[in-house]
Specification:
five-stranded parallel sheet; Rossmann fold; L-threonylcarbamoyladenylate synthase; EC 2.7.7.87; alpha/beta; 11 helices; nine-stranded mixed sheet; 381 residues; 2 domains; 19% strand; globular; DHBP synthase
């Protein structure tokens, strides 16, 4: 299926919300909101979702999401239109509680498979997405699932995301709130950069603290599969999941063009700024490999603006003036990756971005998944 038609035009409002003013008590379905403006702005956004087919930008702990009712074909179409997203790329549904998942999306007699119980108890709310079957008569829009027999669902940890879903009483289909193929947004200003004029509202709740999208797992097959690495590492899945998850298989990084996929991030070009991203793997302090790449590709640093995103081992390189530090820990690199890719692309307006790769363990698997998809060239020693 091709991308759906172009989105209509809006005057996009950015509404401030204070995450720290939102409190969910245990077993409480609706939040207690201390800040009056936050309460009012959440109600404005919820009403937009309830009374129109429009979609809105909102913060989650992973990245900013672009949400519309998962129960409405027209709302989900609006997501694809705003992002210019291919319609065979399925979406993740976000719920505010297990009670909402059960009452809104699942048959009354359906029990969530045992294989997920330990993971849900540990990681919900949080950056973990699971696959569940679509049963006959399901209320979920076929545009969410891309006409497949499973749907992906998670319960976000971010209080603004969870409050918006609870107040609207709507499970929200929500991919990242960016133009399709661009780096995911981790700040409201990123959403405004990509989607201003295409959506009516962006809820500004500050920076996302994880920085990469959720981990997606399929426990409906044996052995279970990791479909997309993200905010929960493989090591954490095995530790918490126990014997059921000790042999978890990792899906290939990119699906074929004619292959149906059960989760976002497996098929199309993703996470790419306008500048060319060059990924360096196992290149020590980077100096020799960068020199060789510049020479072999006839790059004139006086005429070509280059940025260097370094982390654990790379040193500064003479002639590259735009240098950003991704951080040393996996958590810091995850949090900073999309933000700095956007910063050097949109603000510094560089032509090429050199990025230091990391080991594919713990958070590194998700980081390298994104970087390999963003890169137009990979240098590996």
């Amino acid at each position: 299926m091709k991308s759906l038609q172009r989105a209509m035009s809006f005057t996009t409002r950015s509404l401030k919300v204070r995450p720290e003013s939102i409190v969910f008590s245990k077993d409480q379905l609706l939040p207690h909101i201390i800040d009056k403006d936050t309460d009012e702005n959440l109600k404005i956004a919820a009403k937009e979702l309830q009374t129109t087919n429009n979609v809105i930008g909102f913060p989650t702990e992973t990245v900013y999401g672009l949400g519309g009712s998962a129960l409405s074909d027209e709302s989900v179409k609006s997501i694809y239109k705003a992002k210019n997203r291919p319609a065979d790329n399925p979406l993740i549904v976000h719920v505010s509680s297990l009670a909402q998942l059960q009452s809104k999306l699942l048959p009354s007699d359906y029990q969530i498979p045992q294989i997920y119980h330990r993971l849900i108890n540990e990681f919900w709310p949080g950056p973990l997405t699971i696959l569940l079957p679509v049963r006959k008569g399901s209320p979920i829009s076929k545009y969410v699932t891309a006409n497949q027999d499973t749907f992906a669902v998670r319960m976000p940890q971010h209080p603004v995301a969870r409050a918006l879903i609870a107040i609207s009483d709507l499970p929200l289909a929500a991919p990242s709130a960016n133009s399709s193929t661009k780096p995911s947004p981790t700040m409201a200003q990123h959403v405004m950069h990509d989607l201003s004029g295409k959506i009516p509202i962006v809820l500004d709740g500050g920076s996302s603290n994880v920085g990469v999208e959720s981990t997606v797992v399929n426990g409906l097959c044996s052995p279970p599969m990791l479909l997309r690495p993200g905010g929960i590492s493989v090591e954490e899945l095995k530790r918490v999941g126990g014997k059921d998850w000790e042999n978890v298989q990792i899906a290939k990084r990119t699906a074929e063009s004619n292959e149906a996929v059960k989760t976002p991030g497996m098929k199309y070009k993703h996470y790419s700024p306008n500048a060319k991203v060059i990924l360096f793997i196992n290149c020590g302090d980077g100096k020799e490999s960068i020199s060789e790449y510049i020479k072999s590709n006839n790059i004139d640093l006086d005429k070509t603006k280059v940025a260097l995103l370094k982390s654990k081992q790379f040193k500064d390189y003479n002639g590259i003036e735009v240098v950003k530090d991704l951080g040393k820990s996996g958590e810091d690199i995850s949090r900073n990756l999309f933000k700095l890719l956007r910063q050097v692309d949109e603000e510094d307006k560089v032509d090429i971005i050199f990025v230091e790769g990391v080991e594919e363990t713990n958070e590194g698997l998700a980081i390298m998944n994104r970087l390999n998809k963003a890169a137009v060239d990979v240098v590996e020693k």
